[in-house]
Write a structure and sequence with these properties.
By secondary structure, the chain is mainly beta. 12% of the residues lie in helices and 32% in strands. It contains two helices and six strands. The strands form two sheets. It has a three-stranded antiparallel beta sheet. Strands 3-2-6 form a three-stranded antiparallel beta sheet, with no helix packed on it. A hairpin with a 2-residue loop joins strand 4 and strand 5. The longest helix is centred in the N-terminal third of the chain and has 4 residues. The mean pLDDT is 94.
Length: 65
């Protein structure tokens, strides 16, 4: 692998992951890193900020907490 990993908000910008049938405020924990992300309402949809989701590692396995 060459170069930096694609992690953090500086890489992902305002990219959002839409979560159908999920309420804003739902919390998820990444099994790999232990970090917690919270779903938020944006433009009529519930989303996760990809920059926060991939803040430390470019892959996530989420469980609802």
């Amino acid at each position: 692998f060459e170069g930096d990993l694609p992690v953090g908000p500086e890489v992902w910008g305002d990219t959002m992951l839409k979560l159908p049938d999920v309420d804003p405020g739902t919390r998820y924990q990444d099994v790999f890193t232990g970090s917690v992300v919270t779903a938020e309402a944006r433009d009529g949809a519930t989303v996760l900020a990809v920059g926060a989701l991939f803040a430390c590692f470019p892959v996530a396995l989420l469980i609802e907490t």
